[in-house]
Amino acid sequence: MGVEKLRRFGNLIATMLMRWRLLLHLAAASVFAQSFAVTPQKISQGEVLRIEGEGAETARMNGRTIRLFPQPGARPLGLMPVPVITKPGVYQLELLDQQETVLQSFSITVLNAHYAKENILMGRSVAALKPSPGEQETVTAFQNEVLPERYWNDHIQLPIPGCVTSPFGVRRFRNGKPTGNFHAGLDQRGAVGTPIQAVAGGVVKIARDFNLHGGTIAIDHGQGLQSIYLHMSKLAAREGDSVKAGDIIGYVGSTGRATGPHLHWAIYVNGVAVNPRQWVNLPPPCGNSRYKGQ
Ligand SMILES: [Zn+2]
Questions:
Q1: Interval between CA 229 and ligand 1 midpoint (Å)
Q2: How far apart are CA 53 and CA 112, in angstroms?
Q3: What pLDDT, on a 0 to 100 scale, did the predictor assign at position 7?
Q4: Superfamily of domain 117-278, CATH level 4
Q5: Nearest CA to 142 among 224, 201, 81, 47?
Q6: What parts of the chain have a pLDDT lower than 50?
Q7: CATH architecture classification, 36-111
Q8: 122: CA distance to ligand 1 center in Å?
Q9: Considering Cα of 253, then 254, then 257, then 263, what sign does the dihedral take?
Q10: Tell me, what's the pLDDT at 293?
Q11: Could you give the CA distance from residue 270 to residue 151 in angstroms, rounded to a whole number?
Q12: Cα(65) to centroid of ligand 1, in Å?
């Protein structure tokens, strides 16, 4: 065989292999095409997409990648948070395999949640509080963690029964000035000393008295779900403790940057603060609160 012939033969084999790989790929994609479910496909800012399907390792949307976890007796499940600050519009959600090949993509419409504005009146000494050394870093490190075990069910419980004094998502002004922040949790009314219950099972990752957050408990519920509870008067759990839903983890207080006794608690999904209304039945707004429910 001449050199030229050999080269052509080589090219032919290479082309055939490429086509074969492409065919295999298409076949694999069509097998998986029916097996994924993403709900809901129209979603408000601050809420969570549920992704189920066999064969996908991760899901990606708007620069964020989350993991899908195997479930006993059910398809693998992943939770994609849509941050409050996401611009309304249409985004592509892609499901990827281990080699990061896109198996399927969905068009997701993010709707404006029309979160309200809220002004907080705060005394000078409370407003001037500075974080404890490492306070923000500790909370951020917690948010970036993902425990592979799952300790939660689809419905979680409220930590205290009190009415809502400030809902999730409101854009916060302090003494009339915009803070640039939104309310990343839910405030519920509670007298000092009211027991606070874990919203789901999990592992206590933070049990500390911080300057800004006050008495703080943070729980990892696994597979991307976490909760945090602030301003406690007293902690009732230690770092490393395993807790069940309903276990008492602390007591309502007014510690840290708080203007009165209440419980601020929040849910994080894969590190992002999300609206608790997808997870719990929200209590009614307090009578004298400007918040009229959501
Ligand atoms: Zn709050």
A1: 10
A2: 28
A3: 74
A4: Glucose Permease (Domain IIA) (2.70.70.10)
A5: 224
A6: 32-33, 292-294
A7: Sandwich (2.60)
A8: 13
A9: positive
A10: 46
A11: 15
A12: 28
Quickly list H helices, the chain.
3-33, 124-127, 135-143
Centroid of ligand 1 to alpha carbon of 70 (angstroms): 34
The domain spans of the chain are 36-111, 117-278
pLDDT of 173 reads: 81
The model carries a pTM of 0.85
C-alpha distances out from residue 43 to 17, 76, 112, 154, 195, Å = 42, 21, 9, 18, 34
Structure tokens at 8: 């052509």
Residue 28: per-residue pLDDT: 55
The pLDDT, as a whole number, for residue 20 is 64
User: How big is the chain, counted in residues?
Assistant: 294
| 186 alpha carbon – ligand 1 mean position (Å) | 5
Nearest Cα neighbor of 186 from 256, 113, 263, 248 is 263
Ligand 1 is an ion; residues with CB less than 5 A from it = 185, 187, 264
101 Cα–ligand 1 center, Å: 41
Question: Cα(291) to centroid of ligand 1, in Å?
Answer: 13
